[in-house]
Amino acid sequence: MTQRLILASNNAGKLKEFSEILGPIGFTLHPQGEFNVPEAEEPHATFVENALEKARHASRLTGLPALGDDSGVCVNALGGAPGVWSARFAGEPKSDARNNEKLVADLAAHADKSAYYYCVLVYVRHADDPQPVIADGVWEGEIVAEPRGKGGFGYDPYFFIPSLGKCAAELTPAEKNALSHRGQALRALVEKLK
Ligand SMILES: O=c1nc[nH]c2c1ncn2[C@H]1C[C@H](O)[C@@H](COP(=O)(O)OP(=O)(O)OP(=O)(O)O)O1
Ligand SMILES: [Mg+2]
User: Fold this and answer.
1) Is 112 a catalytic residue?
2) Spelled out in words, what is the top-level CATH class assigned to the domain 3-193?
3) Any residues with CB less than 8 A from the CB of 112 and at least 6 apart, and which?
4) pTM flag (> 0.95)
5) Element (H, E) at 145
6) Residue 30 is assigned to a ligand binding site
């Protein structure tokens, strides 16, 4: 029997990555858009508060358990920016192309290109669940000036993994999930739900 779960996100890249891990272990993931749930507010300065906000919002509007993901890229030379503000780094409306352009421009004068992706997942059984289940993951890399690869989404063409000699967008979906902040967080979450 498969278990239905609402993904409290409108990001198709996240949906794909989650489905690849959760499908084989018996979960059917439904993006909140299928239930006409509009995007949640993301007003907080911490990832975990935004992920909780997203999960509660989707669960409240669907009456089903929901999984929220808040994630971003944190660049050391920029004091951790864009961090929690990654999706709207270059302003509204959010645009991966403009975000990447701004990231490369802001980093041009810095020698230290190190960065990490962060992802926190929050699962709620219902909108007022007093014990949300929380798991997170970190993936270290460097920001490069020229894009590489066509896979993934967001900042992936500019996120280089030195040990692989590749950018995240050059990895297969399975390779990315095995290493990524999101893959790590999801596997940790699944362990907690068992
Ligand atoms: O694996 C990743 N590969 C590339 N970029 C990534 C990744 N993970 C997060 N990111 C970037 C995309 C976006 O600029 C921000 C997430 O923002 P975040 O608000 O969590 O997601 P979102 O607005 O795209 O969808 P939603 O809020 O509906 O889940 O970090
Ligand atoms: Mg968002």
Assistant:
1) no
2) alpha beta
3) 76, 77
4) yes
5) none
6) no
pLDDT tens profile 96-151: 999 999 999 999 999 999 999 999 999 999 999 999 999 999 999 999 999 999 99
CA 88 to centroid of ligand 1, rounded, Å: 10
Q: Is 11 annotated as a binding residue?
A: yes
Residue with tokens 């030195």: 162
Alpha-carbon span 46 to 48, nearest angstrom: 6
Ligand that comes closest to the CA of residue 39: 1
- pLDDT tens digits for 84-107? 999 999 999 999 999 999 999 999
Sequence-distant contacts of 35-39: CB under 8 A, at least 24 apart:
35/6, 35/61, 35/62, 37/6, 37/8, 37/61, 37/62, 39/10
In terms of Cβ atoms closer than 10 Å to its own Cβ (0-12, 13-18, 19+), residue 25 is exposed
Backbone angles phi, psi at 75, to 5 degrees: -110, 125
Identity of residue 151: G
- Check residue 83 and give its pLDDT: 98
pLDDT digits 0-9 by tens, 20-50: 999 999 999 999 999 999 999 999 999 999 9
CA distance 91 to 99: 8
